[in-house]
Amino acid sequence: MRLLRRHALTAFALAAFAYLMLPIAVVVLFSVNDPAGRFNYTWEGFTLKHWADPFGAPGLKDAIVTSLEIAALASLVATVLGTLIALALVRYGFRGRGLTNLLIFMPMTTPEVVMGASLLTLFLNLGVDRGFATIFLAHVMFCVSFVVVTVKARLVGFDRHLEEAAMDLGANPFVAFGRVTLPLIAPGVVAGALLAFALSVDDFVITAFNSGPTTTFPLYVWGAARVGVPPQVNVIGTILFLAATGLMFATVAAQTRRSRKGTT
Amino acid sequence: MGFLHRHRGLVPYVLLAPGLAFLVLFFVVPTYYLAHTSLEAGSLDIGYAFSWAWNNYSDGISTYHEQFVRSLEYAGLATLFALLISYPLAYWIAFRGGRWKGLLLLFVIAPFFVTYLIRTLAWQTILSDDGFVVSALQSVGLLGDGDRLLATSTAVVAGITYNFLPFMALPLYASLEQIDGRLIEAAEDLYASRVQAFLRVTLPLSLPGIFAGTMLTFIPAAGDFINAQLLGTPRQFMIGNVIQSKFLVITDYGQAAALSFVLMAAILALILAYTRALGTEKLTG
Does B37 contact A125 at a Cβ distance shorter than 8 Å? Predict the structure, then answer.
């Protein structure tokens, strides 16, 4: 009976994994499909021609370049702002901590459609033309909180004495930060930056409200969904998926190796 | 340099200033403009003017209460399904994952690595009329010959469940993973059955995870419009669809802003009621 229950749970878990993987498999499968018409819904036959020409659909390349540019800029700025906030929160006692935490927490718990809408009313009221710059500002806004949370998690286990030792040995605070603190918290900062990059590339809702004539990759997909999504979108989706998974896999493998050696 | 040395108390504020200024400018101030806009009357042609137009709220609610109720209903159902799927999964990874835990978690968040819109479009393919799910359900008689899955509320709820499932599974895993296995053994040594041990030890200890997971799933789900748009029809539209089209298609800014505010207020009220019902003291200690 106990054995049966044990296997029932395992069977359920495996079924859940299959459910999680199913749409991903569909995305990959339909990137090598050879659709007859404009709609890439039914399996028609194997082809690699979309992989040979991933930017073959008009406008797709520009949209991807725009998305990557915005993600690079937004994740850079959000990482700097977020890391500084995380340092202040973990390392210093100061008045207004509760309010700061609330301000960090709110963007993560507000529905995107509300955030997108309020930014839109800001830009409309100030008469700001929407485009690349407004998307960038919006992305930094919703990424900062996630960077703070990620970096904070890494900073909590950090030994302050190391930095003080450096300063006792004559390093000024900036040198101590650059030579001691930053290398130690680097994994957290990198994780925060990658998370911000991923959130930015994937964002549709807030971007849709603040894009004006600029088209990012998700906006391109949204527009294409009405008239038939070209298979190249599946190719790009697969490439993004593989890149992100590969990166995560490497991180997890490195962590597993480290923890098996007994060092952290 | 010397200045900061002499005024150490200022250091945290110097660190906080740029980030918090950014959040105030692009999160707090926009909320003020949203409130302002929600009381404006006018149109794109004649311009918009502030006029304490409370009718944006009353008209908005009376016209779209159906979409409001539907949003909360779909989000509630999707949160429940996500919990029912995630809990056994997170439990299995936490207690049976062994040294593969990291890798298994990677599978849980894998959907996030496929662009949101693309994975929703994949569900469109899976649930389509000539897809294998429909034909399988028809062959076992669960679905009639002319019945569809796509363009139904089932499809929309299924899509929302899938899209936000990792938000549920990760906090559940985090709280289950922290549970000391010896507590469960102790309960069993004290003659608790496996079910009792689960109900009296494991489940209460995982409440913080359930709380965080349901919030992280429900909030984005209630504001979602992508699933209803891609997997449903206007009969499945949620309040997010209304806000999106009023802002971006028909430029009825006043009412759109009012509806956004009502959505925010409704979610906030539900969170407060939920926090109270679950008991904060149970969660924090």
Answer: yes
Q: Is A223 a domain residue?
A: yes
Buried b (16+ CB within 10 A) or exposed e, B54-65: eebbeebeeebe
- Burial degree of B227 (CB within 10 A; 0-12, 13-18, 19+): buried
In a mutational test of the A interface, the residue from B64, B86, B115 whose CB has the highest number of chain A CBs within 10 Å is: B115
B46 CB burial (10 A radius; 0-12, 13-18, 19+): exposed
Per-residue confidence (pLDDT) for residue B130, from 0 to 100:
81
Size of interface A-B (CB pairs under 8 A): 239
Q: Is the dihedral of CA A189, B100, B93, B201 positive or negative?
A: negative
pLDDT at B285 over 60: no
| CATH, residue A69 | 1.10.3720.10
Q: How confident is the model over B16-60, as pLDDT tens digits? A: 999 999 999 999 999 999 999 999 888 777 778 888 888 999 999
Assigned domain for A161 exists: yes
Residue in chain B lying closest to A84 (CA):
B15
pLDDT 10s digits, A52-98: 888 888 899 999 999 999 999 999 999 999 999 999 998 888 888 88
The residue range of the domain holding A183 is 58-229
CATH class name, domain B66-284? mainly alpha
Q: How far does the CA of residue B234 sit from the closest CA of chain A (Å)?
A: 15
Answer whether A85 touches B (CB < 8 Å).
yes
Best residue of A76, A121, A204, A215 to probe chain B, by most B CBs closer than 10 Å: A121
Domain count, chain A: 1
Q: What is the pLDDT of residues A129-151, one digit of tens each?
A: 999 999 999 999 999 999 999 99
Check: complex ipTM more than 0.90: no
